[in-house]
């Protein structure tokens, strides 16, 4: 299984009044992880947008395990959980510096035409990218 990793230095602005990372920031980190995974595979999400396609989030799930705090470094691990004709599920693990799990999650996406918002298979836009996702997906549909 191909796993991309991205380290993020936790900024003070990402914490709440209790001094822990505000829960919504994990979603931002997951987006950073997706972008890094796509880049590590040699593709470019911005290129899809330039061609007139978007990949909206259909569903998100996050399980918070252990709080993170200002000054720590989070490691976001990202992989393709599953990939089918119209849907891709990304998996995430956000780790503390000691390797303990701070959070896990998934996001489900579909690719749509920017103008019509009609779903479009990745295989029709970039067959090589689609094949790579199928190859590295943790679970097969």
Automatic annotation (TrEMBL):
Family: Belongs to the 4-hydroxybenzoyl-CoA thioesterase family.
Molecular-function annotations in GO: fatty acyl-CoA hydrolase activity
Pfam family, one: 4HBT_2
Alphabetical list of InterPro entries matching this protein: 4-hydroxybenzoyl-CoA_TE, HotDog_dom_sf, YbgC/YbaW
CDD domains hit by this protein: 4HBT (cd00586)
Protein name (database record): Acyl-CoA thioesterase
Keyword Transcription regulation in record: no
Domain of life: Bacteria
Keywords: Hydrolase
């Amino acid at each position: 299984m191909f796993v991309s990793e991205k380290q993020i230095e936790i900024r003070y602005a990402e914490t709440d009044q209790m001094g822990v990372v505000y829960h919504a920031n994990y979603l931002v980190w997951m987006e950073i992880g997706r972008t890094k995974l796509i880049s590590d595979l040699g593709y470019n999400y911005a290129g899809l947008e330039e061609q007139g396609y978007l990949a909206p989030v259909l569903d998100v799930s996050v399980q918070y395990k252990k709080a993170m705090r200002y000054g720590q470094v989070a490691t976001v691990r990202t992989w393709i959980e599953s990939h089918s004709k119209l849907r891709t599920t990304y998996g995430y693990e956000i780790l503390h510096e000691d390797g303990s799990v701070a959070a896990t999650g998934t996001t489900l996406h579909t690719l749509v035409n920017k103008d019509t918002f009609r779903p479009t298979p990745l295989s029709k836009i970039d067959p090589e990218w689609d094949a790579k996702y199928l190859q590295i997906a943790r679970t097969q549909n």
